[in-house]
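Intended use. Records like the one below are meant for learning the mapping from a protein sequence to its folded structure. Do not use them to infer anything beyond what is encoded.
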Amino acid sequence: MSETTTFPQQQQSPPGTTPEMDPQPDHGESSYEGSDKLPGKRALITGGDSGIGRAVAIAFAREGADVAIAYLPDEQEDAEETASWVERAGRTCVLLPVDLQDEDAARGAVRTAVERLGGLDILVNNAGFQNGRRESIADVTTEDLDRTFKTNLYALFWVTQTALEHLEQGGAIINNASIQAYEPSPSLLDYAATKAAINNFTVNLAAQVGSRGIRVNPVAPGPIWTPLQPATQPEEKIKSFGSDTPLGRAGQPAEVAPAFVFLASEKTGGYVSATVLGVTGGKPVF
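Structure written out for the chain above:
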């Protein structure tokens, strides 16, 4: 894994793309080795084109799962790169270019994934948006709130509601929360609020669907080097990104993906539900 403690200053426009990043993130392309934890499973990953989503798609494929990834149409190049890694693992990758802020599109993406994969066993709600380039609550516009809450929460409800029409005994839902739910940054107050809500959503949903044999858990990443960072953080903050963790560095997407595999697999996470799994470089999630 990368031991990068500082990054060159850089800036992108949202949503950000992987090829423009310096250095390139590690998604496990060369390092992740599967061990048959998800044989024959079918997974939908929102935000699956890059960052944590790409790393999870690669890991799931190498564990034996077929994958569908939902992503913004502007992220087509990244999505095709992810698909190529899934296919190199000998698995199917369904591409779903869609803006999850639209309810019909969000629900339709799930139905298309089910149709093309032949069913659904795992849902990963990974898509998210943040804007860290503001200094005060006065700078948060209604447009900002709409984009953040619709991407991070509304879509979570729509996608999950539709997926639950298809998930059966042994199914797993994994939501991408954040260290921001526990240690919020003032510039990310709306984003942090959605991540705290995701934790609450997860615990309540786990109680609702446990009787169906469906497990629901959140992963809470810390500072992870993904396109979201240079696309939404002030340029001056990028240089020291992640240096405030006890481990003293940012994490790589490949270091987060095994947490999703652990929770998705009945072999490893079969009795785990409503439990936050932090991948934070040492920051506490309690």
